[in-house]
């Protein structure tokens, strides 16, 4: 990599090459993000001023970050945060790194809400960083939300993310086992539960297998165990007319739709993510409107 007082351009090129050689899928993007983070620069500063000189000390700091990425640590873990929808979320070892596909759940809910100013009650089961709940609260100015996670560390991280995004007044996070013991009814219940079949976990990419918490991934023998529990709980959690939206893994939408139908939900629909994969199953408690 670059020597003393290298240019930003040279540092960027050598970082990209190192990541490419290590088999990282998006070397250009990852190199830029690590340089921004390592040098404390904005994207504009990195992109528009490639001849800027970088001290050896700064270059060494970036090289250390690049080596972590070359060892397959995800960029979000290295920089400690991740953008999701319109918000920024801090990550900890207790939280799954939010994925862009999960924004499908946010879209699925918003599309069914005719009045975004309504005082809705939201529930997020398996909240992790709080990403789904906080993204929805950011769009629904009079809504309040409860996020539940079995991991006390995740519940704590989500509460901190609520504060970071100015949403702490409207969000509460608690440790719990899905919807067990919850009282009251919710207008919206969302969840992105663990859905990887246990036997598939060893074969996941190292970025996921070695850095996301196991209990955020493991969905039991067929990956569907959490859906069976949540589907059973939904009729007791949803207000009349309330909406449930669940993220699903590839190939799981049909079975999850059946589980929701068996629980008595109606208006069941499946939404695809930007890659065209069936990613969210949505249903309503009560008779179809109209
Ligand atoms: C796939 S992650 C999703 C996290 C976050 N909602 C997101 O979309 O990025 C699943 C989450 O469910 C939590 N979880 C696993 N088992 C649970 C249970 N029995 N009750 C509540 N949460 C659970 C995990 O700790 C993890 O945070």
Automatic annotation (TrEMBL):
<feature type="binding site">
    <location>
        <begin position="126"/>
        <end position="130"/>
    </location>
    <ligand>
        <name>S-adenosyl-L-methionine</name>
    </ligand>
</feature>
<keyword id="KW-0489">Methyltransferase</keyword>
<keyword id="KW-0949">S-adenosyl-L-methionine</keyword>
<dbReference type="InterPro" id="IPR050320">
    <property type="entry name" value="N5-glutamine_MTase"/>
</dbReference>
<comment type="similarity">
    <text>Belongs to the protein N5-glutamine methyltransferase family. PrmC subfamily.</text>
</comment>
<comment type="function">
    <text>Methylates the class 1 translation termination release factors RF1/PrfA and RF2/PrfB on the glutamine residue of the universally conserved GGQ motif.</text>
</comment>
<feature type="binding site">
    <location>
        <begin position="192"/>
        <end position="195"/>
    </location>
    <ligand>
        <name>substrate</name>
    </ligand>
</feature>
<dbReference type="Pfam" id="PF17827">
    <property type="entry name" value="PrmC_N"/>
</dbReference>
<keyword id="KW-0808">Transferase</keyword>
<dbReference type="InterPro" id="IPR040758">
    <property type="entry name" value="PrmC_N"/>
</dbReference>
<feature type="binding site">
    <location>
        <position position="149"/>
    </location>
    <ligand>
        <name>S-adenosyl-L-methionine</name>
    </ligand>
</feature>
<feature type="domain" description="Methyltransferase">
    <location>
        <begin position="120"/>
        <end position="207"/>
    </location>
</feature>
<feature type="binding site">
    <location>
        <position position="178"/>
    </location>
    <ligand>
        <name>S-adenosyl-L-methionine</name>
    </ligand>
</feature>
<feature type="binding site">
    <location>
        <position position="192"/>
    </location>
    <ligand>
        <name>S-adenosyl-L-methionine</name>
    </ligand>
</feature>
<feature type="domain" description="Release factor glutamine methyltransferase N-terminal">
    <location>
        <begin position="11"/>
        <end position="80"/>
    </location>
</feature>
<dbReference type="InterPro" id="IPR004556">
    <property type="entry name" value="HemK-like"/>
</dbReference>
<dbReference type="InterPro" id="IPR019874">
    <property type="entry name" value="RF_methyltr_PrmC"/>
</dbReference>
<dbReference type="InterPro" id="IPR025714">
    <property type="entry name" value="Methyltranfer_dom"/>
</dbReference>
<protein>
    <recommendedName>
        <fullName>Release factor glutamine methyltransferase</fullName>
        <ecNumber>2.1.1.297</ecNumber>
    </recommendedName>
</protein>
<dbReference type="GO" id="GO:0003676">
    <property type="term" value="F:nucleic acid binding"/>
</dbReference>
<dbReference type="GO" id="GO:0102559">
    <property type="term" value="F:peptide chain release factor N(5)-glutamine methyltransferase activity"/>
</dbReference>
<dbReference type="InterPro" id="IPR002052">
    <property type="entry name" value="DNA_methylase_N6_adenine_CS"/>
</dbReference>
<dbReference type="Pfam" id="PF13847">
    <property type="entry name" value="Methyltransf_31"/>
</dbReference>
<dbReference type="InterPro" id="IPR029063">
    <property type="entry name" value="SAM-dependent_MTases_sf"/>
</dbReference>
<dbReference type="GO" id="GO:0032259">
    <property type="term" value="P:methylation"/>
</dbReference>
């Amino acid at each position: 990599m670059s020597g003393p007082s290298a240019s930003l351009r040279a540092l960027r090129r050598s970082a990209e090459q190192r990541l490419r050689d290590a088999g990282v899928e998006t070397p250009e993007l990852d190199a830029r993000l690590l340089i921004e983070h390592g040098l404390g620069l904005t994207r504009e500063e990195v992109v528009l001023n490639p001849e800027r000189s970088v001290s050896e000390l700064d270059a060494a700091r970036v090289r250390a970050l690049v080596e972590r990425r070359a060892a397959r640590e995800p960029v979000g873990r290295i920089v400690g945060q991740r953008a999701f929808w319109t918000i920024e979320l801090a990550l900890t070892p207790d939280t799954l790194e939010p994925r862009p596909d999960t924004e499908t759940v946010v879209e699925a809910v918003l599309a069914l809400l005719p009045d975004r100013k309504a005082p809705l009650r939201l529930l997020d089961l398996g909240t992790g960083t709080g990403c789904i709940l906080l993204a929805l609260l950011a769009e629904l100015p009079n809504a309040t939300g409860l996020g539940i996670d079995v991991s006390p560390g995740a519940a704590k991280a989500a509460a901190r993310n609520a504060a970071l995004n100015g949403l702490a007044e409207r969000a509460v996070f608690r440790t719990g086992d899905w919807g067990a013991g919850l009282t009251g009814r919710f207008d919206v219940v969302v969840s992105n539960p663990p859905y990887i079949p246990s036997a598939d976990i060893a074969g996941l990419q190292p970025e996921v297998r070695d850095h996301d918490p196991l209990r955020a991934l493991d969905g039991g023998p067929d990956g569907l165990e959490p859906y069976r529990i949540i589907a059973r709980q939904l009729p007791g959690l949803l207000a009349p007319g309330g909406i449930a939206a669940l993220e699903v893994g590839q190939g799981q939408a049909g079975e999850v739709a059946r589980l929701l139908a068996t629980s008595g939900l109606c208006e069941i629909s499946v939404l695809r993510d930007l890659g065209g994969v069936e990613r969210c199953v949505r249903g309503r408690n009560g008779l179809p409107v109209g």
